[in-house]
Design brief:
Blueprint lengths: L2 E6 L7 H9 L4 E4 L8 E5 L2 E5 L12 E4 L4 E2 L1 H13 L8 E3 L3 E2 L2 H14 L11 H9 L12 H21 L8 H16 L3 E2 L1 H10 L4 E4 L25 H6 L6 E9 L2 E3 L11 H11 L11 E3 L1 E2 H11 L3 E5 L9 E10 L2 E3 L6 H4 L3 E8 L16 H14 L3 E5 L7 E2 L3
Parallel strand pairs: 1-10, 1-11, 2-5, 2-10, 5-7, 6-8, 7-9, 11-15, 14-16, 15-19
Antiparallel strand pairs: 3-4, 12-13, 16-17, 16-18, 19-20
């Protein structure tokens, strides 16, 4: 059976973890295909919250094999800490597989991330300072260390020495930082991390293709979202990899014809973290309400998210960039108390209407949203277990979004719990 992809359609934090968890029970394998521990998935199971960073959401199902694909950058310390936290809650992590071709985040990546953001000052990009960008930069310039290098001590030490010659020079001469010790890094990665990670390292590309050939079901999940994509997002306020659905092929080793179902996740309103354009952003009492009701703080960083009305212009672009077959709408219940709900259906700039985001950043930064207003429903949706039970105004909102975006909405989230969702059809 061809694979399914789950991809965020906004600026992240759409609820991909919950949707992935919902789909995972139908799957045999769940693959994380890009990003690092700069994005968190929060899943609530029987009232208990699980915050996942690197490990795929399918880890919570004993029958699922979780795979960290070659497109991911891995901080071994974070990975092992996450494994320990899951095991402490009784979750079996023994089936986890890590691609030998995934790249390692090294201490100098994190140090460079921190000092570079400080150096940029008011022009900082809002990075999480976890070394993600520098690790991908080393991958692109072909000086990165990969997970498989942990299995060959000689190669690991040689690559580390070469990398530190440049990194320590930059840290000392540009940023006035002390040099990092190759000995200390080697001891940590080879003596502390390697014994625990080595059993997980695998040829995941062959495993995935063999699994498809044998009829097993595969789900691919990305981190971040469409408009944080390095090529298609609001550059430079983007991540360092490709969260879009096509990135699932690069980051897993599967081919385009192996993908059949591509599910986009969209929040019923929009949020983003850090700097960058945000046409539908709101402030004041409305922003406070959405942040409070939606618990809009980063799973990993704790940073408060910016909030705004649903942006159908972005959503249409996400549909075509990802070839979406359907959309899962999350957090509809957060809008329960509003009398009027706005939806951005177009942009205007210099007398020109845009139904898709303008390609030029100067135009995009200056657009004015064109809104349609819909009535609120004034009802707590969290208790509903059937779409038919829901207030007509809530169903009208869902139908309006589907018609405006141009793709089916197949799932609607009405609460934070694992089973708090309804299906329109």
């Amino acid at each position: 059976m061809p694979a399914t992809v789950v991809v965020g359609t906004q600026w992240g934090d759409e609820g991909k973890g919950k949707l992935t968890d919902l789909l995972a029970k139908e799957m045999d394998i769940v693959v994380r295909y890009q990003g690092g521990h700069n994005a968190g998935h929060r899943i609530v199971v029987d009232g208990e919250a699980f915050a996942l960073q690197l490990i795929p959401s399918g880890i919570l199902y004993p029958s699922v094999t979780p795979v960290i694909g070659n497109g991911v950058v891995v901080d071994p310390g974070v990975l092992l800490s996450e494994i320990d936290a899951l095991q402490a809650k009784g979750v079996d992590t023994s089936a986890l597989m890590v691609s030998g071709n995934a790249h390692l985040i090294m201490p100098y990546h994190q140090e460079l991330d921190r000092v570079t953001e400080r150096f940029l000052g008011k022009n900082a990009l809002g990075t999480t300072k976890r070394g993600i960008g520098p690790a991908y930069a080393d991958k692109a310039t072909r000086v990165g260390l990969r997970v498989q290098d942990l299995l060959d001590e000689k190669i690991f030490r040689e690559k580390l020495d070469v990398a530190l010659m440049e990194k320590n020079a930059v840290l000392a001469k540009v940023y006035n930082r002390l040099p990092l010790s190759a000995k200390e890094i080697s001891e940590r990665y080879l003596d502390e991390y390697r014994p625990r990670i080595a059993p997980m390292i695998a040829d995941t590309v062959t495993f995935l293709h063999d699994s498809l050939a044998s009829g097993r079901n595969i789900l691919l999940e990305g981190a971040q979202a469409t408009f944080l994509d390095l090529d298609h997002g609001t550059y430079p306020f983007v991540t360092s990899s490709n969260p879009v659905a096509s990135g699932a092929c690069t980051g897993s080793g599967l081919g385009p014809r192996d993908l059949s179902r591509i599910v986009g996740i969209a929040k019923a309103y929009v949020t983003r973290v850090g700097a960058g354009p945000f046409p539908t952003e709101v402030d004041g009492d409305l922003a406070e309400l959405l942040v409070e009701r939606g618990h809009e703080f980063g799973t990993n960083t704790g940073r408060r998210r910016r909030v705004g009305w649903f942006d159908a212009v972005m959503a249409r672009q996400a549909v075509r960039l990802n070839s979406l077959t359907e959309i899962a709408l999350t957090k509809l219940d957060i809008l329960d108390t509003l009398d009027v709900i706005k939806v951005c259906v177009g942009y205007e700039a210099d007398g020109v209407r845009y139904d898709y985001p303008p390609y030029h950043q100067s135009v995009f930064h200056s657009v004015t949203p064109i809104y349609e207003e819909l009535p609120g429903w004034g009802t707590d949706l969290s208790a509903f277990t059937s779409y038919d039970q829901m207030p007509s105004a809530a169903k009208q909102y869902v139908s309006f979004l589907a018609d405006t975006i141009g793709v089916e909405i197949s799932v609607v989230g009405v609460g934070p719990g694992r089973e708090q969702f309804v299906r329109p059809s």
